[in-house]
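FAQ: What does a ligand-bound record look like?

Like this one, built around GN1:
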Amino acid sequence: MDEIQIASLLKSSELFPIPQSVKLSYGTAGFRGDAKLLESTVYRVGILSVLRSLKLGSATVGLMITASHNKVSDNGIKVSDPSGGMLSQEWEPFADQIANASSPQELVSLIREFVEKEEIMIGEKKKSAEVWLGRDTRPSGESLLRAAEIGVGSVLGSVAIDIGVLTTPQLHWMVRAKNKGLKATENDYFENLSSSFRCLIDLIPVSGNDKLEISKLLVDGANGVGGQKIEELRGSLSNLDLEIRNTGRDGGVLNEGVGADFVQKEKVLPLGFGSQDVGMRCASLDGDADRLVYFYIPSESSDKVELLDGDKILSLFALFIKEQLNALDDDKEGKQSRLGVVQTAYANGASTDHLRQLGLDVVFAKTGVKHLHEKAAEFDIGIYFEANGHGTILFSESFLSWLVSKQKELTDKGQGGSEEHKAVSRLVAVSNLINQAVGDALSGVLLVEVILQHMGWSVQKWNELYKDLPSRQIKVEVPDRTAVVTTSEETEALRPLGIQGAINSEIKKYPRGRAFIRPSGTEDVVRVYAEASTQEAADSLANSVAQLVKSFLG
Ligand SMILES: CC(=O)N[C@H]1[C@@H](OP(=O)(O)O)O[C@H](CO)[C@@H](O)[C@@H]1O
Ligand SMILES: [Mg+2]
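The answer part, i.e. the structure of the complex:
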C-alpha cells in the first residue's frame, strides 16, 4: 500500500468518525442498527468490498443497504460476494475489526495488515474494482449510499455504481449474473422471471379441455421495496391474478404491523387485510423481499391467520421436485440424483417429520441463510428454507448441465412430448425461475403459484400436507446477549452454566416439548423458541424458558 493510498484512506475516514459506545458485529446478515449510527460502518464496508473484489480478480461485488424486517429507522449493510452469495464467512472477523476501529490510524493499519496477509495489491495503478450498490426504500438509504460510495472511492482506481432501489435478492441475482457474463440489468431479472414462469405454466398438464381457473392472490408488500417491484413485474405475467397491498405508497410504514416477519411471528393478519378476505390465498413479503410466507384468514371472527411458513413452502417445493425426478428414466435406472433439504432448529417438528416421511434427506444448519446455503450446495438439488420464509432451491452445475443435455437428447430423439421431457423441462425452468443466489420472495411467489396450479390445489389443500405443532417465539432483552453461547446446532446452551439443565427440566413437563435459546444475530435480544402438543403448552414452555433467561442473565 503506497503513501498516496494511505493518505486517501486517512482523509476520507476523517469524514466518518465512529460513534462512541457502539459495538458492531457482522452478525447473521450483515451490520444492522439505528441508521443514524451507521455511516462510518457503511463507509468502511465500502472499503472492504473493494478489497474483496481485488482479492477475487476484480470481480464485481455487491453492497446492499437494508435492515430487512427491522423497523424503518434502522438500516444495515451486507455484502454480496461475486457468486451472488453472502460474503465469505472467513472475511467476517475483518469486517468486525474495521467496523469497530476507533480512529482513522487504527483503520488504516488494520487494512494494511489485512492486505498484506491476503496479498491484495491496492494503490495507484493497481487493478480496478467494481462495486454495485443497491438499497431498499428506507429514507436513510440515500445518505448511507453516499458513505458507501466514498468508502469505495477511497481505494484508488475503484468504482462504485449506484444501481438504485432494489430488493436484496435482485442485487444478489444481478451480481451473480454480471460475474457469469450474463445479462444483468433489473430488466433482465424481470424478464428471466416472467419467461421461466411462462415456461412452467405451459408445462402444466391439462386434461381434455379443462381450463385452469385462476384465483386471486393477495400480496402484502410490507410497505417496502418488494411490493413496488412485484407491481412492476405484474404487467409481464399472465396466468396470475395479483392484488398488491401495502406497497408503501399509501402512507403505511415499512414493517409496521405488516410483512412476513410480523405475520410469521405473531400469526395475525397484517394491516390492510380484513374479514372481506376470509379464505383468500394471501402472501406476505418482508421489508427487502427475501422472505415469503403465505396465509389465509380462516374465520371472520378473529384476526388469527392460518400460516403457511417457510417449512410449508419447502414441503411444497420438495414434493414438486421429487415428482419431476421420479419421472426421469435415468433416475429409475439407478442414476439417483441427490435431492436434499436443509432446515434450522426453528423448523416446525411436524415439517421435519413430514419431509422424512417423503423419504427426503433432511439436514440441519445454524440460523442464517449463509449456513443453509452452504449445506444445500452439497446436493444435486438442495432446497433450503428457514421457517420465517427465507430460502431457495440450488441446482449443482453438473446436475444442471446433465439436465440440459438430457433435454436436448430427448428432443433430438423425437421425444419432445414425452413425460420425461416435460419433467426435465420443468426442472430446468425451476432452476431459472428460482433465484440461485439467495432466497427471493418474488421468484418464490411465482414458483408457489405455478406449483399450486400444477397440482390443482387451493391454499387450504396445500396447508393439509401436515399440521404444524403449536409453537411460540419470544424475544428477551438482556444486558448482554453474548453471554448465551450455544452448540453448533444451536439447540443447546453451553453458557450461562446451568441454564440448559434448567431448560431441560421445563421441556420434560410437556408432551412433544422442545425448546431452545440463542442470541439473535440481528437484534439485541435472546430468542426463545418452544413447541409442544397444544398452543397453551407451547406458550407456557416458552414463558418459563424466557423466565430462566431473565433470571440467569437479567
Ligand atoms: C428466528 C429468526 O427468524 N431469525 C432470523 C433473524 O436472525 P437472528 O440471528 O435470529 O436475529 O434474521 C436473519 C436475517 O434475516 C434470518 O436469517 C434469521 O432466520
Ligand atoms: Mg429480509
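Follow-up question: can I read anything off the structure? Yes, for example: Residues 535-553 form the longest helix (19 residues).
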